[in-house]
Structure formats: structure tokens, C-alpha cells
TrEMBL record, chain A:
Name of the featured protein: ABC transporter ATP-binding protein/permease
Cell compartment(s), UniProt: Cell membrane
The keyword Cell division is annotated on this UniProt entry: no
Transmembrane segments: 93-117, 201-218, 285-304
From TrEMBL, chain B:
UniProt xrefs under Gene3D superfamilies: ABC transporter type 1, transmembrane domain (1.20.1560.10), P-loop containing nucleotide triphosphate hydrolases (3.40.50.300)
Limits of the ABC transmembrane type-1 domain: 35-315
Name of the molecule in the record: ABC transporter ATP-binding protein/permease
Species of origin: Streptomyces pyxinicus
Signal sequence coordinates: none
Amino acid sequence: MTTTASTPTGTEPEEPVRPHGTTGDDDPFDRDVLPTPPGATAALLRSLLAPMKPRVALTVLLLLLQQAAVQTGPLLVAYAIDRAVPAFREDRHGPLVAVGVGYLLCALASGVLQFAFIQVSARVSQDVLLDLRGRIFRHAQALSVDFHERYTSGRLISRSTTDVESLRELLDEGLQELVTVLLSFVYISAMLLWLDLGLGAVAVASFVPLYLLVRLYQRRAGRAFRSRSTAIASVIVKFVETVNGIRPVRAFRRETANEGEFALLNRTHERTNGDTLLEMARYVVGSRLVANTAVAGIVLWGAYRVASGSLELGVLAAAVLYLRRLYDPIDRLGMFLNSYQSAAASLEKIAGLLAQEPSVPEPVTARELPPLEDELPGREVVFDGVRFAYRTGGEVLPRFDLTLPAGQTVAVVGTTGAGKSTLAKLLARFYDPTEGRVLLDGVDLRELSVPELRRGVVMVTQEAFLFSGTVADNIAIGRPDAGRQEIERAAKAIGAHEFISALPDGYDTDVRRRGGRISAGQRQLVAFARALLADPAVLILDEATSSLDIPGEQAVQQAMATVLRGRTAVVIAHRLSTVEIADRVLVMEHGRVIEDGHPRTLVTTSGRYADLHRAWRDSLV
Amino acid sequence: MPTTRATPETGRSAVRALLRLWPYVRPVRARLFSAAFIAIVASCTGLVIPLVLKWMVDGPVAGQDFGGIWLGALYLLLLGIAEAVLFGFRRWLVARPLSHVEASMRADLYRHLQRLPIAFHDRWASGQLLSRGTTDLMLVRMFLAFPLTFLLVNGVTILVGVIIMLLQDWTLGLVVLGPVIPVMWTCAVFERRYAEVARRAQDQVGDLTTLVEESVLGIRVIKGFGRHRSQARAFHTLTAGLRGTELRKARLLAAIWAVIVTLPELAIGAALVLGAVRVADGTLSAGTLVAFLSTALALRWPVDSIGFLLAMSQEAATATERYFEVLDEEPERESATTAQAARPSDATTATGLRFEDVRFRYPDAPPGSPPLLTGVDLHIRPGESLALVGATGSGKTTLTALVPRLHEVTSGRITLDGVDITAMPRAELRARVAVAFEEPTLFSASVGDNVLMGAPEGADRADLDRALAVAQAGFAHALPDGTDTRVGEQGLSLSGGQRQRLALARAVVGRPDFLVLDDPLSALDVHTEAAVEAALREVLADTTALIVAHRPSTVLLADRVALLSGGRVAAVGTHQELLRDHPEYARLMSGAQQSAESGAPSGTEPGAPSGPPPGAQEDDPR
């Protein structure tokens, strides 16, 4: 039961705030450019596609066959003109019948293959998206609280919506385009070369300027797409902030000012969006010019040769038909590049997010908590040489040792910013200490798997967030396998049953739907019920009753007296009524524990606690 | 957790939905139409190329006229250049305007959302709104860029192509036209089914967005309970559902593609055989057949593309519907006409804030449920501050929300210095009434801006400092950039108590005539609370204030107290009077009968006699 606050380092700011938000213009978080390790984007794409290999191969095969079927058409035309027509004149109908049957088969085959291809490729793309969405989501969830405090929710949302959406476009349309285009390039070049080496060579030569054009476009459009992706993310951030803060927006007549700010962001997006479209326009002009010039050249030379008798008319006809097809998909290649650029910009951002290491990682090999020795659920907590500072250097908790014996209810009091919440967050493992260890029954919190950790420690905070779903669902977050009876028991224990029963659908009332309005105090009660249901060894209450009225708070205290029996509890409260049930009080100031003892003892000494207690008694009147 | 809204399917038409885009397209119509016209010209230029070929094959090539061949090739080159430039020109014409259409639709959505009643926002998950503002609008832009233009362009191209073919040889032309009717029928059937599935997919995306958002906003709860796996499972269920819908979309698309690819190809095959026979018979020139077939093949892309153009249009139609679903919601309306008449005469008589038989039920409450407020009569005299006390869920917060008209009274009226608040422009009302909410929201702006948004134009540094001093928010000066430090979603994160003090500073910075404070000190520690109270007392001395209070210390800020119970004001008086005369008030303020010994530290044993009070909840007569 001793506290040794040792090695004072540096001076404490009067109110330690988290100095890791916006402190400079070069903060990658601020500019929404998390560092992406080189090659991470490509590696991400590879790892997404790796499990799909067989099916990707199947789609390529389907396309190969389909293109074969489609591209046979002009060949049949050439054959019909050069062979079947003369044969027909000689009353041999066989070749023409063969042409007819061949065309029929090709048409049917290309239809069927197209049908199969779309379905298989949709499956591939949907599976990749499922995987990617899941990865982003799980990763975001695994990242620690301090990451979330810096990265904004709007950005995370835009990562998992618009950025994923651009990958969807790439997979759905882009990849198909690419494969189709490349295949038809190969097929048609081969056909042309086979029909006539010279004409074919000219066609193939035209690929060189086309390739250069593609490279140029890729470089220029890449920049445009990256700025667009950043721009839309800012739009989303502003949008979400406004919608979620609609009450103060209204009450303080922010509408006009907001519109101005939004218009600015929106215009940036409009501009960058327009830039990407203009790049595309340039590309289209260039590629069409190359293609059409090549067609004119080939026709000139071909016609010359037909006229001079060194080329058959049917071959020229087929070559011309093929050429049209060869250059037709160039626009579509542009579309592919479009979706590729846009997806690459998005993937880069996603890869940057996925490359963020959770600063509070799950252990590779987890340890279990030792079995409880007696019937009581509590466990011993030890802060062993713990020091905590934010990455940017602001020290919040100087090195200290602290032991909370199993079953003890410890109240932590002190002014705002004294480090109480940081202490609680270290115990809940929202943060890991900069130095030292936090031990639960001798096991370092860092070695516990998440389920084991949460059987050990649960924290209820002041912001009682409710998820969409029913009230019962929200309580069940404490223990998802709990039955309705257990849920109601937990709600009854803290005095929430009454108001929940009065809701339109009782426990089944959707908190986001009709009549589901729940006050701040009621939300805290739901959050409490959640914690009770979780039944942890150590319960942390961080200002968990601040919005309750006095009867509500008393009901909670009364419940806590039974609920906390034998459990280890850390209670942070400004209202000392909550402290009354504690076995021990820690008074914190500037990150240090300055008083430590039983509340009844402390109140008789002339320290900070006695002072706080007096002030609180006065506030009760 | 589906928040998907069912849409009435009756009378739903993609065209009608898309027509609603007209007001946004109107300003850019000149460019859009020119672009479409240019695209048609470019496309038809492409169709002339086979005719040149025919002329070359039947003319110079057959006649070995080399000069003619050069001429033909030159024509081809010129046509090719024209086509390329025209297509590029089309894109250049629409690039900026279309981004502008998207942006102005988004700006309108944002504008509208800021003006929709709070009740609307209570009902709609922000993810659903966001997906309308982002993905749906992108779909609309893409529709304007491609399907809209190319359905027209391709339609015209097909028509011209068909005419060319019919002119060259009408029998062959008719053969090629054969599949038109079956293809159109398939498209019609497809359009209907695809619409349903597309709508479902978009709604599922909205639900997904909501879940993502909640998982980010509720990250502390999820972490605190180690629930990220079950959250990931819920996410997986939704994404798997979306995948299923997308695959259904793909099946429909695959079917339409198969039909659109196969039928025209069959017809071309038939034309080829028939044409070859007639060339053999000598009733058709080889050049005509070549030209005919290359025209038919040139029409392949326009025909093929109809499938995905229709699919895109369908998605755009659904997106448009979803967009207008929000835009069609009625915004808060001003009743400014009465205001002009009412204000000047009454403005001089300062009568404070008065509630007259105010009843309120949420407009979206299930029918038959009792109103929340059933007749509140309350008068706060000018300069007086009144504390509002009531049990959790008794409607205190709702009552405070009625004053700045965040919600509208169901019946009865609220007057500010004698003027009915509904007869006042909202902006003016909200300028006169300052509010501090229980949940302090800061915006992504500097501390100074956050506080000064409560002040009228022209407020300066001194006002800011004074407000910060009142709210005991001196910590703001010690932030990295002082009061210029950015806070909120995109800035420094502050503790609950710090945010609450800034919100309070925001409420008092404009020295408002009327102040509404909803439990403004809940997150403060005792010392800070005492300091804030001391400073607030001065502010409140000449301000008409309504203060929701949970604790005696807050109540004592006010001159009088009103007890809200059963949807009406049960009693008004001083703290001492109510404490003495009203058991419910006494229970709320001091906690049942325990008040006498509440100061004494209770025993550590839960069962000890001095411990918990006899069940406060069970004794409650409610």
C-alpha cells in the first residue's frame, strides 16, 4: 500500500493536454499522408490477389477463349470473300456453309463465355473487396486509442468507403478492360502479322508512340488523382463533423460559416476532379490521333498493294476490320488507366493506414491469467516502475510504483489534468507505459490476449457511446453471449431497468430510431450495465457517473457496493460521494500521487483530500 | 442493425428520377449539349470511314488508280484527325462543368442538411447521409459524363449506321436489324430487376458506412470491452451481405451482356453468308459487302455498350433517388411575416422567458405514446436565473432544446420578452439565446474560433479572454499555440472537463440576453466547479438564464428552481422551499432519506449499517 513517486523529471505543464495533435504543418496526420513504406502498395495488391490465383487464371482463360471467338469474325469475312465466294460461283457450297456455321459457333461461344467471365470476375473482385474491407476494419480496430485520437474518423471512413470504392472500379471494370485490351492487342497483332507480315508490322510499330503516350498519361494523371483523393477525404471530414455536431451548429448559427468552409473544400475537390478529367481528354486525343494515322497509313499501303496485285482484297478487308478493333479499345485502356490511377492513389493511402503498427499490439504468444485463488473475482494490480510520456515528449506520469491489492476499491481524485485518466488508460491498456510494466496478478498486461485482458480489466468512461441497435444489444456488448435475463439483471442492478422498460419497445428499442432518444444520464446507466455484465476482475470507472442525477448516482453506488465486493476497482470521480465507498484514496497532482490512504483517515489530516472533501461538502449545501 | 429504408416501389421510374437532375444540369446545358452534338458528329465521322473504304475498293483499287488511292488515304487521315480532335474536344467541354455539377449538388446537400430539423438527424445515421454525399454523387457525375451522352450518341450512331446499311442494301440491313426487338425487350426486363438490386447494394453501402463510423467513434467502448472481434464479425456480416448483392448484380449484368453480345453477332453472321451468296451471284459488289460488314462491326461497340450504359444509368437513378430522399425533407421553415409585425412593439417590454402550456412530443414518436411534456408553464423574469431539476429522462434537455427552436413545440408557446419565438427569425432567436450543451462539441478550428462562434461579429480578444476567464478555461493560453491551437476532430484532443469549459465560454462570450445551460459543470472537479460558479454568478446577475441542474451546487447558481415532473412543472420556488416541501425534489437533490449522513464516510463493508441507502429506486412511487 505504498506509493513511491521517484525521479522527478522536467516540469509539468499546468494542465497536461495531449500535445500530439496539430502542432505543425509538417505533421503527416494533419496532411493525411501517412508514411507508406516503399513497395507496400504493390505488396498489398499482391497479397489481396494471391488467394485468388486459380480464379484469376480462370478469368484470364475465359477471356482468352472469348477473345478468340470474337476475333475470329474478320478472319471468316476474309475467308468468305477470298475463298467461299469464288467456290460458291463454282457451285461448291461447302466453304460458305462452313463460314455460316463458324460464325454461329463463334457468336454463341462469345456470348456464353462472356456470361461466365462476368460472373467469375465479379466473384474475384467481390472477394478481394471483402478481404480488403475486412483488413482495413480489423486493422483500424486493432490500432490503439492514441492513433484514433490523431487520425480522424472522417479519414478512416473515407479509407473504407471512397478509397475501397475506387479499387472496386478498378477490379470491376478496369482489370477486365486491361486484360481484354491486352489480349486483343496480342490476338489482333498476331492475326495481322499472319494475314500479312508488312501490314502487321506497321500496326505493331504504332504501339511504340501509344506506349509512350500511356506512360506520360500515367505520370500526369497520377498526381491529379492523388490530390483528388486527399481532397475528397477533407470533404468527408467536414461533412461528418457537421452532421455529428448538428446541435451546436444550429444553436451557434454556424450554417453560413460552415457553408463557406465546405465550399472551399468542395471547390478544391471540384478542381482536382476536373484536372483528372482533363488529363483523360488529352490522352484520348493523343491516342486516337496515333490510331487513326496508323489506319490511314495501312490502308494506303494495303490498297496500293491490292491494286498492284500483291495483296488479296479479302486480306485488306480483314486487316481493316481488325485495325478498327485494334484501336477501338484504346479509350478503354485510358479508362483502365483512370481507374488504375485512382485506385493506386487510394491503395497507397490504405497501405499507409495498414502499415501503422498498433502502439498497443496484441502479444504474439499470449499468457493466461493464473486461476483465481479464492471465490472472489478480484486480482492484484501492480504498476512497476511505470513512467508515461507522449511520443512528442510531454511527460504525464513521472516514474512511479503502485500496488492495488486484489479486491480493493481505490478512488483516484485530483484536479482536471492531474493524470488520473492516464493512469486509468494504462491500467486498461489503452496506452502502454513508456517505461516499466503494469502487472495483473503478476502477468504483464502486454502478454495478455484481448479476450483474457478484458476478462481482467474493463473500463467505463464518461463518454457513454451507444451503437445503433437495441438497448439490449448495447448492454450485451459487455458479454455478447449473455441472455436477456442476465441483461435485465445487470440493468436492474444499477437502476436502469425502469427507464428502459418505459421506452417504446423496452429493451428492444432501437437507440437510433423512433422514440429511442436516450439522455446523457441514461446512456451512462446503459454503459454501466454493460460493464456489470462484463464481470471483470478489475473495473475502472472514469467519471462514469458525471451525468447522473443524485438518485441515479446513489443507485449506482448502492449497486457498486455489492458488485464491487471482492473485485478490484479504480474509481475516478470528481464527486466525492463516489469516493465514500472506496477502501483507499489516491490524490493525484501533476502526475504524482501526493496522498494515499483510507478516506476516513485522509479526511482528518489537513492535506489535499481534506481540502477537496470540504469543498465538496460545501457544494452539496 | 439495418437502417435501410424501404422505398415505395410503385410508379418508380429511372427516367423520372434522372429528370430531377435537370436543375443542376441546366447551368451547364449549353456545354453538355454541344458535347453530345460533337460526340455524335465524331461518331458519325467514324461511320464515314467504311464508305471511303468502299469507294477505294470499288474505285481506285479495282481500277488501279494510284492517285485515287492516295486521295482516299488522305480522306481517311483527315477523317481520323477530325474524329480524334472532336472526341477530345467533347471531353474538354464537359470536364469542368461536370465536376461543377457534382460539387454543387454536394454543396446543396450540405446546405440542406444544416437546415433540416434536428429530429431528422436523430433519425438518420450519418453514414447513410455521407454515402449520399460521396459515392452517390460520383455515380451521378459518371452518368452525366457517359451514359447520358452515349445513350444518345450511340442511339444516333446506330440509327445512322442502320440507315447507311439499309441504303447500301436493304435486305442485308433488315437481317442485321433482326435482333433489335429481342434485345430491347431484354433490356427492359433487365432494367427493372437491376434497379431493385442496385438500390439494395447502395443502401447496404450506407449501412456499412454507418458501422465503420460507429466503430471509429465508439472505439473506446470497443477497446474497453475487447469487442473488436465481435465488431469485426458484425462488419463481416454486412460486407458479406453486400458481396451477395453485388454478385446478384453481376449475374444480371452477365445475362444482359450475353444477349447483347450474341444476338447482333448472329445477325452479322447471317448477313455475311447472305452477302457472300449475293456477291457470288454478282448482285452485290465486293466493296459494298466490305463496307456493309465494317459498318455493322463499327456498330458493335455502340450496341454492346448499351448494357453497361443502362446499368450505369440505373445506378445513377437510384443514387439520384437517394439524394433527393434527403433533399425532399422539409427544412425548418421561417414564419417571418408575423415576426415583422410582432417585434417592434414588444421589444421594449422586457418580460423574460415564458413557457405557456408547452406540450411536446417528438414528431416521430410512435403513435399513441404519451407526450414528453404535457403542459409546461414557467416564467423566468428578466435577469433572473432559474434552475431546472428533474429525474433522469424527465425531459429537461428536451425543454431546453425548445428555446433555441432545435425542436418545435407541439402546442403552446414560448415567448422571449413577450415575442413568440416562432414569430422570430431563427437566426435572430439563436443570436439572443446562447446554449451550452451537456455534450460539449468542439469543431475543427482554433480554440479562439470555437469560443467566438458564440459572439456577434466584431468580438475581439478581450471578449475571448473574458469568456475564458469566466469558464475557468485559462488552460487555453497554455496550449502549444495558445488560443490559436486547433482543437476538435482534426486537432488537439482535450479532456471532457476542458471541452465543457470551452463550451461554456462559447455560451457566455456574446453576453447573451438569454442563456440556456444544460448541466454545464458535470465534468468539472469540485474546485474548478466552485471557481466557475463564482464567475458565472456575475454573468448571471443580469442574464435571463435557464440552467439544467443535477446537483445542489449548480442549483444554487440560480435564483429559483423549477421541478419538472410528469411532463409539467410540478413546483417553483427557492432551493430551500422545495427541499422542505417537495419529497421528490429532496430525493433528487440529496438522495432519499440519506441526506443527513451523506457527508460521513460510509463503512468499507457494503452491508454495514451506515452504508447504502434503502433502495431509492424501489421506493420511487413512479
